[in-house]
Amino acid sequence: GIRLAPKEKLEIPVLFLPAEMKIYKAVVVIHVMRENGENWPYKLTSESNTDLNRNVTVAENGETHGIVWVYPINGTPEAPQQKSVVIRCQARQRLEQRVELLLIGVVTPGARALPDAGNPAGVGTEESANAPEATDGSPATLEFLYELQYQSEEIRSQLESWVGLQLVEKEWDTESRIVTLIFNVVFAPSKPMRSEATVVVQCTAGGLWKFPLVFIAREPEVDDVINIEAVGLNKESIVGFKLTSQTR
């Protein structure tokens, strides 16, 4: 019953308050009809576009009574951001460190069935069909996707060749519903620096977790000490040494 003037805009607020860390799905359906109740003279035929057939309502005489727009909404709950994990290493050294990240509120595999909202216009549901099914309470059926995100392309270009991240183990606590992901982090900086990145973890059953990482590279050790002995006043003293280039 909302009336719109020609070229007027309509804002539809959507509020998302997830109760659990799982995937939520809904659709926003907008049905537009003429204010005077008359139909549009356009008639659907067997040669009409199939997408058009799904997005209009037809009157008894075959004319178009209304136009339908359907906007699918996929809700992904995001956990509060955790405290930063600081990884320190001396420049031109290599550090391997195990980092444990706690995923709080993971939905148990046995509770994966999610009711879909009404679908009057035939919106596809292939995404939920491709999700792995679980029948027991073990974490083996839960899949986690992770990536290391950087604050800027400049930080990415600096850290990508220095940082490695690999998931080596996951532990499941059924009582507390906490999954512990254990990562092996490799940090091999070539010069002193301080940068930040974020490990973003997403569960296929739903939920998003973000963990900030702070990488700190300290000053490297002194390579060598060069001693130049004076041979006399107003006379040059020369000492030679070799440098090895790390690039071509």
Describe the structure.
The protein is mainly beta. Among the domains are: 24-75, no CATH class; 85-108 and 142-218, Immunoglobulin-like. The protein contains 3 helices and 11 strands, in the order ββαββββαβαββββ. Strands 1, 2, 3 and 4 form a 4-stranded antiparallel β-sheet that branches. This is CFA47 protein.
Spell out the key features of this protein:
248 residues, Immunoglobulin-like, four-stranded antiparallel beta sheet, 3 helices, 11 strands, Ig_CFAP47
Q: CA-to-CA gap between the ends?
A: 72 Å
What's the total helix number? 3
Proportion of beta-strand residues: 35-45%
CATH class of the domain at 85-108 and 142-218: Mainly Beta
Shape: elongated
Protein name: CFA47 protein
Region (Disordered): 115-136
Organism: Helopsaltes ochotensis
Domain CFAP47-like immunoglobulin-like: 78-217
The gist of it:
With 248 residues, the protein is mainly β.
Sequence-ordered SSE layout with sheet pairings:
Elements: E1 24-32, E2 40-43, H1 50-54, E3 56-58, E4 63-75, E5 85-90, E6 95-104, H2 126-129, E7 144-150, H3 153-159, E8 163-173, E9 178-187, E10 193-203, E11 208-218
Parallel strand pairs: 5-11
Antiparallel strand pairs: 1-4, 2-4, 3-4, 6-9, 7-10, 8-9, 10-11
Protein name: CFA47 protein
Domain CFAP47-like immunoglobulin-like: 78-217
Region (Disordered): 115-136
